[in-house]
Amino acid sequence: MSVRNHSFVTEFVIVGFPGLQPEFYGLASAVLLIVYSCTLIGNFAVLILFATPNILQKPMYIIILNLVVSDVLFSTTTLPKIIARYWFQAGAISFIGCFLQMYLVHYFGSVTSFLLLIMALDRYVAICFPLRYPMIIKNSTIHILNATAWIVAKACPLMLVIRAYPLPYCDSNTISQCFCDHISITKLACTDRAPYSFPAFVTAMVVLLGPLVFIIFSYCSIIVAVLQIASPQGRLKTLSTCSGQLIIIALYYLPRCFIYLSSNIGIRFSTDLHIVIIMSYSLLPPMINPLIYCFKTKDMKQTLMKKFKKSTAP
C-alpha cells in the first residue's frame, strides 16, 4: 500500500502548552495578544520612521527594515492561530495549512539568520576597513544581499516540507506546540523518523551555524580592531555602534543553539518548559527589537525624538 493511502489525518490540532489548565486559557490568550499587539505597534512605528524621505537611508537601516518585515511576518504566521486556540478553542488547522505554516515558520527564521549575517558584514567592513566601507557597502549592494537572503532562504524550508508532506500520518493529530514546525509534525508520522530528522538537523545547523560562524569571526575581528585604537573614548564609541546589533544577534542565536544542542546531547526538559523556551526566542525578539533599533541606534533615536516633538508641539 502506498504511503499516501496510510495518511488518514485530514487536520491537525495545535495544543499549545499541554500542561496549561483551562481556567488559564483566557490569561494565556491575553498575554499572547499583548505580545502580538506590541510587536505590530513597535515594528510599524519603525516602518513609519523609514517612510520619512531622505532619512535612515544608510545600509544598516536598510538591513533593519528587512528585519522588521521578517519579524512582522513571522509573528503574523504564528500568533493569531495560537491566540484563537486559547480564546475560541479553535486549535484545528487543516493538513495543508499546517504544512504551509511550517514552511513559513522555517522560512522567516532562515531569512532572519541571513539578514543578521549581512548586519555583521556591515559592521565588520565599517570598523575593520573604514576607508573602504563606502566603496564596498553601498545601498545597492545591501539591496542585492537582502534580496539574495530572501531568495536563498526558500531552499531549506522547501526541502523540509517536500520530505515531510508525503509521510504517513495515521495515528495522533495532536501537535504539542504553539505552531506547526518540522519536529512537531514529523513526530506524528507512522514511520521511523531517523531518515528524516537527521537531514533536518543538518539543514538547521547549516542555516543557523553557517551565518553564526561568520558573525563570530566578524565580531572577533572587530574586537581586535577596537583594541588597536589608542583612545579609550574611541574604543567605547566604536563598540557602541555594535551594541544594538550584538543584543539582537544574542537574542536570536543563543536560545536556539541551546535548544538544538541540548536535544542532541540528551538534556531533557518538560514539554511545557521546552515550548516556553521556543516561544520566548521566537516571539520576544520581534517585540523587543524595535526598542533596540530606536534606543541603540543614534540616527533612529534622533528621528524618533524629532517626530515625537513635532507631534506634541502646540
From TrEMBL:
<feature type="transmembrane region" description="Helical">
    <location>
        <begin position="60"/>
        <end position="79"/>
    </location>
</feature>
<keyword id="KW-0297">G-protein coupled receptor</keyword>
<keyword id="KW-1003">Cell membrane</keyword>
<feature type="transmembrane region" description="Helical">
    <location>
        <begin position="239"/>
        <end position="261"/>
    </location>
</feature>
<keyword id="KW-0807">Transducer</keyword>
<keyword id="KW-0325">Glycoprotein</keyword>
<keyword id="KW-0472">Membrane</keyword>
<protein>
    <recommendedName>
        <fullName>Olfactory receptor</fullName>
    </recommendedName>
</protein>
<dbReference type="InterPro" id="IPR050939">
    <property type="entry name" value="Olfactory_GPCR1"/>
</dbReference>
<keyword id="KW-1133">Transmembrane helix</keyword>
<dbReference type="GO" id="GO:0004930">
    <property type="term" value="F:G protein-coupled receptor activity"/>
</dbReference>
<feature type="transmembrane region" description="Helical">
    <location>
        <begin position="24"/>
        <end position="48"/>
    </location>
</feature>
<dbReference type="InterPro" id="IPR000725">
    <property type="entry name" value="Olfact_rcpt"/>
</dbReference>
<comment type="similarity">
    <text>Belongs to the G-protein coupled receptor 1 family.</text>
</comment>
<feature type="transmembrane region" description="Helical">
    <location>
        <begin position="201"/>
        <end position="227"/>
    </location>
</feature>
<feature type="transmembrane region" description="Helical">
    <location>
        <begin position="143"/>
        <end position="165"/>
    </location>
</feature>
<dbReference type="InterPro" id="IPR017452">
    <property type="entry name" value="GPCR_Rhodpsn_7TM"/>
</dbReference>
<dbReference type="InterPro" id="IPR000276">
    <property type="entry name" value="GPCR_Rhodpsn"/>
</dbReference>
<keyword id="KW-0675">Receptor</keyword>
<keyword id="KW-0812">Transmembrane</keyword>
<dbReference type="GO" id="GO:0005886">
    <property type="term" value="C:plasma membrane"/>
</dbReference>
<feature type="transmembrane region" description="Helical">
    <location>
        <begin position="273"/>
        <end position="295"/>
    </location>
</feature>
<dbReference type="Pfam" id="PF13853">
    <property type="entry name" value="7tm_4"/>
</dbReference>
<keyword id="KW-0716">Sensory transduction</keyword>
<dbReference type="GO" id="GO:0004984">
    <property type="term" value="F:olfactory receptor activity"/>
</dbReference>
<keyword id="KW-0552">Olfaction</keyword>
<feature type="domain" description="G-protein coupled receptors family 1 profile">
    <location>
        <begin position="42"/>
        <end position="293"/>
    </location>
</feature>
<keyword id="KW-1015">Disulfide bond</keyword>
